[in-house]
Amino acid sequence: MLPLTEQLVLGLSLAILYGPAYVMLDQTVWNVVGQGHGPVMAALALWLAWQRKDTYLAAPSQQAPMAGGLTLIAGLLMYVLGRSQNFPILYVGSQIWVLGGLILLYKGWRGLKIMWFPLFFITFITPVPGPLVDLVTGPMKAAVSWAAENLMYALGYPIGRAGVTLTIGPYKLLVADACAGLNSIFALEAIGVFYMSVMNHKNVWRNILLAVLVLPTSFLSNVVRVITLVLVTYYFGDEAGQGFVHGFAGILLFVVATVAMIALDALMGALFFRNDRQQEPHHG
Amino acid sequence: MAEPNTLRRTLLISAALCGSAGLAVALTPRPQRFMDNSQRLADLVPQRFGRWRLAELAPGLVSPDVASSIAGLYSETLARTYIRDDGQMIMLSLAYGENQTRESQIHKPEVCYAAQGFAIQGLTPESVRTRQREIPVMRVLANMQSRQEPITYWIRSGKYTVRGWKEQNYARLVQGLQGVIPDGLLVRVSSISNDTAAAYRLQDAFIQDMLDAVAPDKMPLLLGQPI
Fold it and tell me: Taking all residues of chain B, what is their mean pLDDT, rounded to a whole number?
């Protein structure tokens, strides 16, 4: 194990390097409605690393200075470009490379093999660039508004829609990005991946299917969310509706999505994967 | 079981990490504005020029949440409707943003119209030849139900005139690497018409008349060089 002073020096350097990144995330990205899951993802990544700590420390070290050095340099270049030119995806994402490089330098490939999953999980802390969000959000927004409108119309509510604006009674609601965003898909995907890692299914197809099913799950829970929002606005007024958006709606989304995911997984398990007995999770 | 040389290596790595943090801070661009606080968009383009004058119209209704998101994005916006002596009408919209970072950069009309539920039916980069210079513009055809709105726009980003996301982001990156966060001005000219070709001709004529009437010292606020 590394001497304490060196641990401190490295820890302090990493804090200098990435402390400002988390301050930036906390002040900007994580404040946006629909992005509040960021800190949870960071905590999950830390927890995943902590779980693997003993295995990591016990593994023999076979340093890979060449690969480690190159990975670290690539990571630091991403960092400098990302931080100075304001690319949060590079700024935050460079952590994967920098930390991966350090692991290679100090522990070698064996260490990387143990820590790959927490490193991969950093992806879910990394902010997605706006154009990419718009690309996925646009059709999703339209589809969610369409589904919500038709469902409520069938139920006899006085609802109308022009583009992505819903009209209910005297109220007008814009289906904002946060309501249908990639942000929530991304967060749900993260929860899905986390769920998969905890369940530790052996069958590859079951895992792939589960990861793909995140999309319809996200769509469904967004429809539930928008309809709830419309109903709250209709019965209790605009103010109640807006309060709902910023408070409870996000939580509802995740509860619906998580329950739907667990239900889907259980259903798949019962129907298709009867032979895939679950392993005991290898940690915890 | 620390090897004798680990301390040296750790210090070296630590220096690389801290050095990168310092380098990133040193390379961070700073805002540079072409328009200062004393200048108003309302003074940029006269209320009356050539055959054009301001039309007396009830102000358009903007829902409060849209208005607040506009206020967050732009330092100043101006929306005017001009009417020509032959009755032709043109909507002019100017939006100034003092720093064109990614989050706060000017929204392109093809994106905001689509976000409001318009269908974007045409998106063509063209250039408008005026007596002053050739202006790279984007022609956008937006449509909602029976409302057909041909739009001509350009964005001045720092010292460049750009249109579309590629040029807008390219201009931001190039100037960012030069250490500058540019300011930006959206100039959007549109009319409601089913005859798209005629609408664009009218808009070109309006742009020409407008540029003729803008004071030369204010020109760099409106127009940059092509990128």
Answer: 88
Q: What is the ipTM of this complex?
A: 0.71
Residues A195 and A238 in one domain: yes
Residue to test with chain B: of A76, A94, A107, A172, most B Cβ within 10 A? A76
For the ranges A2-11, A89-98, A162-171, the lowest mean pLDDT is seen at A162-171
Residue A281 included in any domain: no
Tell me, what's the pLDDT at A254? 75
- Specify whether A101 is located in the same domain as A163: no
Render pLDDT for A9-22 as a digit per residue (tens, 0 to 9). Answer: 999 999 999 999 99
Q: Shortest Cα distance from A44 to chain B (angstroms)?
A: 25
Instruction: Judge if A138 and A264 occupy the same domain.
Output: yes
Summarised one tens digit per residue, pLDDT across range B161-206 is 999 989 998 999 999 999 999 999 999 999 999 999 999 999 999 9
Assess whether A161 and A267 both reside in one domain: yes
- Domain span including residue A237: 130-271
Domain count within chain A = 2
CB contact under 8 A, B24 and A84: yes
| pLDDT tens digits along B5-16 | 688 999 999 999
Judged by a CB distance cut-off of 8 A, whether residue B165 touches chain A is: yes
Residues in chain B, total? 227
Q: Which of B118, B165, B173 sits opposite A131 (nearest CB)?
A: B165
Catalytic residue among A52, A83, A179, A206: A179
- Shared-domain flag, residues A256 and A139: yes
B144/A163 touch (CB, cutoff 8 Å), yes or no: yes
CB within 8 Å: A84 and B25: yes
Q: Are residues A168 and A207 in the same domain?
A: yes
Residue A20 lies in a domain: yes
Report which of B165, B160, B179 is spatially closest to residue B34, judged by C-alpha positions: B160
Chain B residue nearest residue A174, CA to CA: B116
Q: Which positions 172-191 of B are in contact with A (Cβ < 8 Å)?
A: 173, 176-177
B132 touches B211 (CB < 8 A): yes
Active site residue A83: no
Across the interface, of A12, A80, A174, the residue whose CB is closest to B27 is A80
Residues A141 and A110 in one domain: no
The tens digit of pLDDT for each residue in A186-231 reads 677 777 777 777 777 777 787 788 778 877 887 887 788 888 888 8
Mark whether A91 and A182 lie in a shared domain.
Answer: no
